[in-house]
Amino acid sequence: MSKTNANLIWKIADLPLRPYQPNRYDDVILPFTILRRLDCILEPTKDQVLAECKKIASTKVDPDVLLKAKFKLPFYNTSRSCRSAYRQRSAGRGTS
Fold first, then answer.
1. How far is CA 28 from CA 34, 61, 74, in A?
2. What whole-number distance in Å separates Cα of residue 51 and Cα of residue 59?
3. How far apart (Å, rounded) are the C-alpha atoms in residues 28 and 10?
4. Residue 87 in 3-state DSSP?
């Protein structure tokens, strides 16, 4: 399975008109792969985390402690942006 995923990633990297030279792929592909995986892990609770963060913003509660405990994850993301939203916007413009 991981070999299949790795092959898919390299196949995507070989698509023409990409802004990266082949000798720089390692610097780009691995970080973006990790970011996407983290985004996938956080996606099911994303809206709930944002709502909870907004709710406690005016209190003196430490959001780090509360969000980690409530959602039982060692990390969270309070950014409204996510990779799937970027992909949907790109698809709407006719590019991928």
1. 10, 37, 25
2. 14
3. 11
4. helix
pTM, full prediction? 0.58
Per-residue pLDDT of the chain (96 residues; tens, 9 = 90+): 677 877 877 776 666 546 667 777 777 778 888 888 888 888 898 899 999 999 998 898 898 999 999 988 888 888 887 656 655 655 665 544
55-58-61-66 Cα dihedral, nearest 10 degrees: 20
Domain range spanning residue 50?
Answer: 2-92
Whole-angstrom Cα distance, residue 13 to residue 28?
Answer: 10
- Count the domains in the chain: 1
